[in-house]
Write a structure and sequence with these properties.
The chain is of the alpha/beta class. It is 30% helix and 29% strand. It has helices spanning 16-27, 53-63, 77-88, 104-117, 130-139, 165-174; strands at residues 7-11, 31-39, 67-71, 95-97, 120-122, 143-150, 189-195, 201-213, 216-228. Helix 1 links the parallel strand 1 and strand 2 (31-39).
Length: 229
Amino acid sequence: MEANIHQVFTSWSGGKDCCFACYQAIVSGLKVRYLANMITEDGKRSWTHGLSAELLEAQSQSVGIPLIQRRTTMANYEAEFKNILLALKPEGIKGGVFGNIDLEEHRQWTNRICQQADIIPHLPLWGRSQEAILKDFIGSGFEAIVVVARADLFSQEWLGRKINLDFLSHLAELNQTSDIQLCGEAGEYHTFVTDGPLFNQRIEILETDKVLRDGYWFLDILKYALRSK
């Protein structure tokens, strides 16, 4: 089989699901050459997670995989994402890795865009138990913190919390009174990965601010540093 059959990109938000999907893809033998990330039209922040473009670039540096960032409005999001796929094809990229877990509309969107660009979608986490995914993510040595949380479900104290077994236990308790998905697949919360087996350097968070915006709490990471492991 030709070497370029194994060359893929990962759709990248900086959070746990895309990171763990990327890791699983690499373990399975795929070669992840790029991380693809969509940022706001002003070039300052990522969509959904609200992370600074510079922070995501630092994360890419820590992982050692080049990051492609594309500016877009929400209205043009799909078209711009497809443009990334089309731009990667001449470089031998045959597939894309996505962190989708169980929302059928997410998978349908992924499949449609990949089909239009003649890219093979890889969904390593699809259909797996969300509890098992979180436990495997933690057990594999990844470290992540909560950077976005729905204000009607979480107080601001959840921002900055580490994704560990205590976090999973608290989520399970919350799930008894609120209908949430443990991995936050429906947008209940988002994360930022700071260390793990993919990382050559860990990211140390030095200064943050908590901001309430559009019904969500956001952890604004103001200062950080890359540290040797």
